[in-house]
Design brief:
Layout: E1 2-4, E2 7-9, H1 13-21, H2 54-68, E3 75-80, H3 85-97, E4 102-104, H4 114-120, E5 128-132, H5 140-148, E6 152-155, H6 163-166, H7 169-177, E7 188-192, H8 196-200, E8 209-214, E9 221-229, E10 232-237, E11 241-245, H9 250-265, H10 270-277, E12 288-292, E13 295-300, H11 306-316, E14 324-329, H12 338-351, E15 356-360, H13 362-373, E16 379-383, H14 386-396, E17 402-406, H15 414-430
Parallel strand pairs: 3-5, 3-6, 4-5, 6-7, 7-8, 8-9, 13-17, 14-15, 14-17, 15-16
Antiparallel strand pairs: 1-2, 9-10, 10-11, 12-13
Amino acid sequence: MWRFGGKLARPSLAETNAISAVPDGREWYDFEGASSLETDGRDDSIVPLVVDNTITALGRLAAYYRREVVSPTTEVIAITGSNGKTTTKLMLHHLLSASFPGRCAPRSFNNEIGVPLTLLSAEPDDRYLIVEIGSSAPGEVAHLGQMAAPTIGVITSIGEAHLSGFGDLTTIAAEKASLMDHIASGGLCVVNIESDELTNQMGTPRGCEVWTVGRTPGSKFALAEVEGSLSGTTFSLSGFGRVHVPLPGSHHAVNAAAAMVVAQRLGLLGEDMIRRFHSFVPPAGRARIVRIGDITLMDDTYNANPASVEAAIESLLLADTGRRVFVLGDMLELGDASARLHRRVVRRIVDAKFDLLITVGRKTRQAAGEVKNEGTLMMMVACEDSESAGEALDSLLQSGDTVWIKASRELQLERIVERIRSSYGERVAMA
């Protein structure tokens, strides 16, 4: 059975053939003649469809659903980039949901399973659907972009992520920019042009209109007077006025600006968006502030690459009281550049003159050891995993500390946040 527009319906032979005819540049399986499974007397109103590859079939089904079922009045918005995809998606959804029915990808549903599931979640009365598109190798953005057929695109940033699959920033920029080739004719792509590699992609003719955003001179929507603290970032955006978002870091200002530009395209007024941002709460793991007594934890544990770690370093510099502590776990999928990039971010932490660095994992431990041998008085503690790092931090915390915790997802540093929350609570209860 297939669920179209919230209703269950048995797919006809014509429908299964139509799905097999939807092109995406890959081999498509022919569903005609697919066998039904024996039901052994069970309810046979649900007919299983046997396919050679479930992921391929899911993508084909989603492509068909997008073109034949999703309402023509639904704006399908696709967001890609090295950093900031999920946060930008959630900010845009927060802005739009106050005025329109619609939905966005749950969590980081940005791959060949998550994108189809997001498309299949669309309802007939949705005014918008926000799809998040990730990539770890060339061609994935084009494949998922063709499946989603967006009317609006957003490219948030270019950074050293998934280098094991791409090799260099130029290839990453070309991959992200390929989204523009799959935006509907007459559609729009909002592009952060603060990266030279992405700016160089702007010379390639595209079928959609391109609006640029950033602090770069010449941006169609230019940011200025960016000011920040740990509690948020304030900036001026041409055509909108003064904006405050409750996220630390100038990179979040650019992402917020991109969300506002898209929301304006859908009819929202600037003053309404500015008010709406005051109630935005970032999700756990994405620069969310966790206050435990007089200790501040910055839960930025969802993922990490060099650009996002360096943004976190700049944000921790905004802490103006107490000690500044950075918990840095390994950054994964950096290929041959891994050792060099780990040394680079550790040097940035040392140059920032933070009070304590706790490393988690082999890559950060090695980088910290090399940097320390070059000469630094900074206190460094090396840990094997999140459990030992939590124990170390628990024993070293002092009143008034601000702690930024960041690593690639696989290191599960969110466990440190939970340990400190639990441990500190017990101490308060005993006092």
